[in-house]
Amino acid sequence: MSTTRQHPPGDLGREPEGAGDDAHAPSAEPAGRQWRTLPLRQAIGIVPTARDFARQALHDWGWLPAAGADRRAAAEDVLLVVSELVTNACLHAGGPDELRIGCTPKVLRVEVVDSGAGQPAPRTPHRAGRPGGHGMFIVQRLCLDWGVLRVPGEPGKTVWAELAAPA
After folding, report:
1. Which of 100, 120, 114 is nearest to 17 (CA)?
2. CA separation for the pair 134, 99 (Å, rounded)
3. Does pTM surpass 0.70?
């Protein structure tokens, strides 16, 4: 666990801009989605901070502590996706501005907002034995769906991924 935190333990963060409307969702916002948001613009230890924040949200939503192997694997997948999306923003987009995590009984959504112009994509052909370049391939394999949202005329993007909630 990280020793650097940009928020006090138990702080749930603020609601994301436009929570409750579909400003950052590819379709209508599911009823009952709970959101947690963590600003990351000037965070220190960004990836561990994001993982700690995600771990706390999973705990608050009952994913952790995991009662069985399936629930533990689902929580570990979420933490890995958070790490990959935040790391990708650090490496290719000048760093993340914000991490958002939303949960319904069936789906957990991870969103990373950055000011970069690039388009994340799994590297093809994927070469498992080579170092680096596996982040979006991992996201693609672990998630139900993922994508990129842009607001026309505004810089940056939101990279999102959705994972199935444990049964």
Report:
1. 100
2. 20
3. yes
Angstrom distance (rounded) from CA 16 to CA 39: 10
> How far apart (Å, rounded) are the C-alpha atoms in residues 65 and 72?
8
Residue-wise burial string across 24-42, b where 16 or more C-beta atoms lie within 10 A, e elsewhere: bbeeebeeebebbbbebee
Euclidean distance between CA atoms 10 and 12, whole angstroms:
6
Structural contact between residues 87 and 133, judged by C-beta atoms closer than 8 angstroms: no
Q: How far is CA 142 from CA 27, 84, 104, 137, 156, in A?
A: 21, 11, 18, 9, 25
Q: Tens digit of pLDDT for each residue in 64-77?
A: 998 899 999 999 99
56, pLDDT greater than 70: yes
Per-residue buried b or exposed e for 77-103, using 16+ beta carbons within 10 Å of the residue's own CB: bbbbbbbbbbbbbbebbebbbbbbbbb
Nearest partner of 93 among 38, 26, 46, judged by Cα: 46
Number of C-beta neighbours around residue 123 at 10 A: 13
Q: Are 99 and 158 in contact, with CB atoms under 8 Å apart?
A: no
